[in-house]
Amino acid sequence: MGYEYALVHVKYTVPPAVLLTLLYRPLFTKLDVYKVAFLISVAVTYTIPWDSYLIRKGIWSYPSHVVIGPKLFDIPLEEVFFFVIQTYNTSLLYLILSKPTFQPIYLRAERNKAHARGPLNTIWKYYQVLGQILLAGVMAVAWQMFKEGATGTYTGLILIWAVPVLLFLWTVAYQLILSLPFSNTVFPILLPTLYLWVVDTLALKRGTWVINHGTKFGVHLWDGLEVEEALFFFVTNTLIVCGQLAFDTALSVLFAFPHLFPDPPTLPSPSLLWRALLTPAKEYDEARILGLQEAVGRLRKKSRSFYLASSTFQGQIRTDLLLLYSFCRVADDLVDNASSIAEATSWIYKLQKYLDLACEEQASPTTHQYISESFPSETQSALLQLPLRKLSRKPLDDLLHGFEMDLSFTKGDSSKFPPIVTEADLDLYAHRVAGTVAHMCLELIFHDYESAMSKEDQLRVVQAGDRMGVALQYVNIARDIAVDARMGRVYIPVDWIHEEGLTFRSILNSPQGTRIERLRTKLLSKAFALHRGARDAIEELPVEARGPLRVAVESYMEIGRVLKQDGYVVKAGRATVPKLRRLRVAWKTLSQG
Ligand SMILES: CC(C)=CCC/C(C)=C/CC/C(C)=C/CC/C(C)=C/[C@@H]1[C@@H](COP(=O)(O)OP(=O)(O)O)[C@]1(C)CC/C=C(\C)CC/C=C(\C)CCC=C(C)C
């Protein structure tokens, strides 16, 4: 009996597990636990018979003075623990590195060109087959090595064990394997592989485990690292990462394609995951993928705060919030960027008509036709994919009324008839353009997560959300005083302006100076008061939504905190929160739960 093998864990595998857990802890969701636990169970169950066979055949062995003693099918418990901890560590690294990625946009519908409407990729089908042939070839060679029973035996056994699973994972997850950035695929394979190569070198040199002669090539990748060991760790990490990718393929299909899976549960059963995984790529919805790609592009380009927050949401709600953002952004931009008041008014009218049609029947040909005839092509997916069946009509109508209020700045002489005179006018405006957005975010959350909250409690939380939206809009106005002035808009109530001895026109002409700073401070004080009064309601929401929603709110409020400091950094006329500071805020707010 000895503790050598156990010490390998204490020194080399447990510390990274602790570190990765601490790093990922604020983001660790039930779905992640499910994924990791599922993969660990599969890894352990699949590896035990193989490892037990290798030990019994004497391919490798553990001197009795290095292991504590207890065994499972001849495998020392330290070794069984190795399967668990390696799968855990590599999975966690994968989860961390893939957090910013929204996987569904990397899927492709594979259809004949004649039937294609959106992004499709026919070439991938050939890659899939090519990969399958290659892996089948490796399998044949491995079988030969094993049958010969000579120096290639161990390599043959590793490959015979791993390649069938790899073949399956490749067959079901080739789209993500091929298209995701290397940070999500290659890095989480190579980093732990390199690390384990070093650990293995140390362990083999100390004789913690021993590979017997005669069944190995006797070739070293570097001094102390047998090629078979190097191959083993590379292959096992590849299996773990591909397992995660297969899981994510299933989740992407489940949460991105409502025509296939209308209302999937937040924790899908293995049989549902299986069905999603085996859905042929020709059944994927190309228009949906395009809508999601454009939504992600829009969010990345237009809002750093919500982009960061979006990556902390998971599953169905992440998809739905992205699509809601896309719609709000497109609608706001259509009105804001119109070249004349008539054009802006016509966009509002068209958006209203789109809502009338779509609320009657979202995916009807009439709605499709109206969208394609009335809106620019780059905006159409945002309208087509809005998850309207999960939203009520009132906040959408109110949002459009909010845009109408924006237009009154350009109608006639706004310095004579400014649209926002009193604080109540500002509150109404902020409720319309931002309170409504909060309302819709919460409607999506209540739809996508099961919640035991009564209707009255939901209403109370929605009202708090509305106030939080107003708070964010106050920050937005405080940030954009100069930008808005350039567009002929002043959202600060005229009553406040007069109290400072200024006029609507003077702000348009010169939106800076100490008095402007005082008005900015007043806006921010009101924003933070509203924020303080509403933030506790977040803690009443389903647990999975709390942390991410805190990130969304706090990373936007951070703009307000930056504005309160002297000498903030201004980019394109707007105060910005430096990236590291944003990450720190996200980390802190997630950890609060
Ligand atoms: C994580 C994620 C993807 C969230 C999406 C949130 C979402 C749907 C945002 C839509 C934003 C948008 C384009 C709305 C159009 C009207 C508008 C311009 C509103 C202003 C936001 C955008 O600011 P930005 O700086 O990008 O805009 P401009 O460049 O100035 O045009 C607003 C400031 C409003 C944003 C309000 C919210 C997102 C609501 C936040 C509150 C909650 C989510 C509820 C919190 C819940 C409780 C219980 C307190």
Q: Can you characterise this structure?
A:
It is found in: Membrane. The strands form four sheets. The chain has a two-stranded antiparallel sheet with strand order 1-4. It has a two-stranded antiparallel ribbon with strand order 2-3. A two-stranded antiparallel sheet has the order 5-6. The chain is elongated. It folds into two domains: 4-112 and 126-246, no CATH class; 287-591, Farnesyl Diphosphate Synthase (Orthogonal Bundle), CATH 1.10.600.10. The longest helix is centred in the middle third of the chain and has 30 residues, at 227-256. The protein contains 23 helices and eight strands. By secondary structure, it is an all-alpha fold. Strand 7 (570-571) and strand 8 (574-575) form a beta hairpin. The ligand CC(C)=CCC/C(C)=C/CC/C(C)=C/CC/C(C)=C/[C@@H]1[C@@H](COP(=O)(O)OP(=O)(O)O)[C@]1(C)CC/C=C(\C)CC/C=C(\C)CCC=C(C)C binds at residues 299, 302-303, 306, 309-310, 313, 321-322, 324-325, 328-329, 332, 433-434, 437-438, 441-442, 461, 464-465, 468-469, 472-473, 476, 480, 534, 537-538, 549, 552-553.
